[in-house]
Design goal:
The protein has 234 residues and is α+β, with helices and mostly antiparallel strands. The chain is 47% helix and 11% strand. The protein has a domain at 19-41 and 177-222. It has helices at residues 12-26, 55-63, 67-83, 99-109, 114-126, 135-144, 149-157, 162-174, 197-208, and strands at residues 2-7, 35-40, 182-185, 189-192, 225-227, 230-232. The strands form two sheets. The chain has a four-stranded mixed sheet with strand order 2-1-3-4, with helices on both faces. A two-stranded antiparallel sheet has the order 5-6.
């Protein structure tokens, strides 16, 4: 069973969706036969390399909202994260470009470490307040999962894996992805948003039992997800 997951490191619901899906996998009897392929997506290609001001001010400017509205939304994101054991620190968050982080993740795939690096990059962004557009920071994160930091830095200073990232983003558009996280299961079904762990488990079990000619999976109602216009709640 192959699951392709389009996400962005700067997407609050991508981190949530990843955790909920992983929770579902722990209860799935055939988890060892599931292949997960991470695919790149950029919510804000025009994000700066270095954020100016506070996260709430930056988000308000980019989404035509008041700072008060943004801070209220951040509280909702933070509370949703806490339910999954995640800590979102919008007070120190650095909202920056994610393209080079995606390039680094494609390099990590060579060593079967893309999943681990994805988790570290999301934690770095949402919890640790690190600038994941900064090459030194990215190479430090890579070293933390056992990758060679000097090689990582050389990759980042080049344009390696840029085409692969762009191809994955273009692929998302070609199959109709309008927001992330977006899960594609065996190239047959799409699940949009940070669905519940229970729903993910239901989908996995139904997909596995297709060989028994059981009814097809119904398309999920879109729940928490992010697109270029912002992040949507239920």
């Amino acid at each position: 069973m192959k699951i392709e997951l389009w996400s962005d490191f700067a997407c609050p619901f991508c981190y949530l969706g990843k955790k909920r899906f992983e929770k579902a996998l722990t209860n799935f009897a055939h988890a060892n036969e599931v292949e997960i392929v991470y695919k790149a997506y950029q919510l804000n290609p025009h994000a700066p390399l270095v954020m100016q001001g506070r996260a709430a001010e930056s988000f308000a400017h980019d989404h035509n909202m008041s700072v008060a509205e943004v801070e209220e939304r951040f509280k909702m994101f933070t509370n949703a994260a806490l339910e999954e054991g995640l800590v979102y620190r919008y007070d120190i968050m650095q909202m920056t470009k994610t393209f080079d982080a995606h390039r680094l993740a494609k390099w990590a795939r060579k060593f079967n470490l893309e999943a681990q690096l994805t988790d570290r990059l999301m934690k770095a962004y949402f919890t640790d307040g690190l600038n994941i557009a900064d090459h030194e920071t990215l190479s430090f994160i890579a070293k933390g999962i056992g990758l060679d930091s000097e090689v990582a830095l050389a990759v980042l200073k080049s344009r390696q894996y840029a085409n692969q990232v762009l191809e994955e983003i273009a692929e998302a558009r070609s199959i109709g992805v309008q927001g992330v996280p977006f899960f594609v299961l065996n190239r047959k079904y799409g699940v949009s948003g940070a669905q519940s762990s229970e729903y993910f488990l239901q989908v996995l079990n139904q997909l596995w039992s297709e060989q028994l000619h059981e009814p097809p999976i119904e398309k999920a109602t879109t729940t928490e997800y992010c697109d270029e216009e912002g992040c949507r709640l239920k």
